[in-house]
Automatic annotation (TrEMBL):
Pfam families documented for this protein: Peptidase_U4
GO BP terms: asexual sporulation; proteolysis
Descriptive protein name: Sigma-E processing peptidase SpoIIGA
Keywords of this entry: Membrane, Transmembrane, Transmembrane helix
Domain of life: Bacteria
Residues annotated as catalytic: D185
InterPro entries in the record: SpoIIGA
Species assigned in the record: Cohnella terricola
Transmembrane portions of the chain: 36-55, 61-78, 90-111, 131-149
UniProt feature coiled coil, ranges: none
Gene Ontology terms, MF aspect: aspartic-type endopeptidase activity
Length: 320
């Protein structure tokens, strides 16, 4: 069998560079190109030297781990024991994922009459798997494996970040209480203009039974000020909520000024995990006639000022 050492070196240089770049993306690192090239060069040189000289134990498990440690150290620096261990672990995770994808794709596209073909048994009971792949196919399989791994890792990271913004909230109005999932929106800067009370957003369908008949659906198309004019003060059950209603002006995405129907609750409690609950007394709840999450993950959007309140209680209740 003819082995072209220069091809082995260049292939490993490209593969090691790709793995290191993917590791940097996974760990949110931005190492210099010089450091990445030096680490990839070391890995490629290590793979090519085996065809030039024979050094006992040079390709043992310990030697391979040592070269991997040196590559990670060259790429990302030390940064403390915890950071170094995490970088090293991510490097091997990317290696296993991408190489496993390449081998899996190669065997998937390989045709054989028997599953035992391509297996050779050694004298000491070992098994040798014949694995041959053209260079072009190898590059395509490697690129596809890296893309699948990065897409999966990025999706998982975004989901994890999104879960950090989820809160469990409890809204209390009179003798009623409602609990639901809510999403913290750091870009929400909606306040009631006169009192500067923060306004959180909630699906109007949550309070469909408490609001006048049909309001939760009509809020999608009709202006809330027209709905308020229809309130019947003779209906004590409806008017008890009517005294809590507010109209909050806001600017839509297209720049047009609009009004949002809001409710003044007694208390809103925010909790997440083992953290002590946050009590928000000074808040308005804007009602949205649509669905905030297409997947139904959350039904309310929390104002950032509410999450920054004191864990035991926010400012005392003030009239809105």
């Amino acid at each position: 069998m003819t082995v072209y050492v220069d091809l082995v070196f260049l292939t490993n240089l490209a593969v090691d560079g790709t793995v290191l770049l993917t590791t940097a993306k996974l760990r949110r690192k931005r190492p210099s190109r010089t450091r990445l090239f030096a680490a990839a060069f070391l890995g490629a040189l290590y793979a090519a030297v085996m065809f030039w000289v024979h050094i006992p134990y040079f390709y043992s498990f310990g030697a391979k781990v040592f070269i991997s440690l040196a590559m990670v150290l060259l790429s990302f620096g030390y940064g403390g024991p915890l950071q170094f261990v995490r970088n090293f672990g991510a490097f091997y995770i990317v290696n296993f994922a991408t190489l496993g994808g390449v081998i899996g794709l190669s065997f998937l596209m390989r045709s054989a009459q028997s599953p035992w073909e391509g297996m050779t048994y050694t004298a000491d009971g070992g098994v040798i798997l014949e694995w041959q792949m053209q260079l072009g196919l190898f590059i395509v399989a490697l690129a596809l494996s890296v893309w699948l791994f990065r897409s999966t890792a990025e999706t998982g990271r975004k989901r994890q970040e999104l879960e950090q913004l989820f809160w469990d909230i409890e809204v209390r109005v009179g003798e009623g209480s409602w609990t639901m999932k809510a999403l913290l929106d750091t870009g929400n800067r909606l306040y009631e203009p006169l009192t500067r009370i923060p306004v959180m957003i909630m699906e109007a369908a949550v309070w469909k039974d408490q609001l006048p008949l049909g309001w939760s659906d009509r809020l999608q198309t009709e202006s809330p000020d027209l709905l308020i004019t229809e309130l019947d003060t003779r209906d004590s059950e409806v008017y008890s909520w009517g005294s809590r209603l507010r109209l909050v002006p806001y600017r839509a995405v297209n720049g047009a000024s609009r009004l949002m129907l809001a409710v003044k609750p007694d208390i809103v409690l925010l909790s997440r995990g083992d953290q002590p609950p946050i009590q928000a007394n000074r808040v308005l709840i804007g009602l949205d006639g649509g669905t905030l999450s297409s997947e139904g993950t959350y039904r309310a959007i929390v104002h950032p000022d509410m999450a920054q309140a004191d864990p035991k209680s926010s400012a005392p209740s003030q009239p809105a």
